[in-house]
Amino acid sequence: MLVVDNADDRHFDSTHHCLSLHPIHAETLAIPNLIRSKKSFIILIVLILWFMLVGDASALSRSNFFEFDSQYTNMVTTSVTENIGDDNNVSIHPSEDFRLPRTLFPHFYDLSIQVHLHDNKSQAFFFNGSVTIKVFCNVSTTEFFVHASDNLNVSLDQIHMSLLDERNQTKSVIEIIHVNYIEDDECYRIKLKTPLQPYTYYNLTFGQFRSDMDYDSDGLYISRYLENGIYKYLASTYMESVYARNVFPCWDEPEFKANFKVNIVRDENFHSLSNMNLESTEVLYDNWHVDRYNTSVKMSTYLLAFVVSQFSNIQRTDNRGRNVSVINYTNAFVTLHAILL
Fold first, then answer.
1. What are the beta bridge partners of residue 201?
2. Residue 194's CATH number
3. What is the DSSP letter of 102?
4. How many domains does the chain have?
5. Cross-referenced InterPro entries, in alphabetical order (predicted)?
6. Which of 24, 169, 280, 292 is deepest in the core (most CB within 10 A)?
7. How far, rounded to the nearest angstrom, does the alpha carbon of residue 232 sit from its chain's CA centroid?
8. What are the mean pLDDT values of the chain's consecutive 10-residue runs (341 residues total)?
């Protein structure tokens, strides 16, 4: 807390303060000349008291401001320290500005998205997927929060958590005892039976989620174009600034940076494109293929991007050594520079 000095110990020398600013008026500001009458003496006292009161109010205001700022900055540490008891029952909530607590930090996302696209408008466009998030526990807690929009249908019985050993292998299973959705904050609250240990890594898996796709450019959405008089459809992402949560459960704030491994499952007649270069393509079943992309650099969720379309993708290198993707279709072409972070 900022300590406010006692007003009685303060001294504001109005005469010498003014002398230092306006030395040419030294004679007129001498104290004997100021106190020429009882009236001028009273005015002087009132002015001094006014300056002292303003100083106290200003200091008090600054004290409250810094006290609030400190409380906000150390919100998680303070609440955890005060609530840890014999049962390690820690209760943390998103702050008033809807920021997630800094108890857990995402380290790595392994994301798989299956995009259901076709040329038949009468059929529904939708996507489904799964994600495993490697998280780092910063402060011991028995509950935490993960962003997910209310359009995302998450299978609650497919949420799992495990403790990782030094080789990133599962060491033990963490029991989840309760999951509920907080609509105002667009996040899931996950309650655990035992507290997570600080400075330890865990895997958090959302085994199944699903959402319809429409023409609203939030998250993963549909666009269309004409080719030989026939409408063709494509799916693309717009994650900025808080729309990654429309696509998959995540820590959807810029501060929470992580590496991303993206796998796009698509129909054999379509192609995909993402931030990083394509690592491999594998035939899954029927006419479904999976495109696996290289792991990204550490970045915020809103920077993640991918497209599923019937455009062809030609990889080239420009004269400065940068990767360039040329995406083209029958009657036109669009050039996109690969996102280099």
1. 136
2. 2.60.40.1730
3. T
4. 1
5. Aminopeptidase_N-like_N, Aminopeptidase_N-like_N_sf, Peptidase_M1, Peptidase_M1_aminopeptidases
6. 292
7. 34
8. 37 36 38 45 48 43 32 31 36 64 97 91 89 98 97 97 96 97 96 98 99 92 90 94 97 98 96 94 95 98 96 82 72 40 36
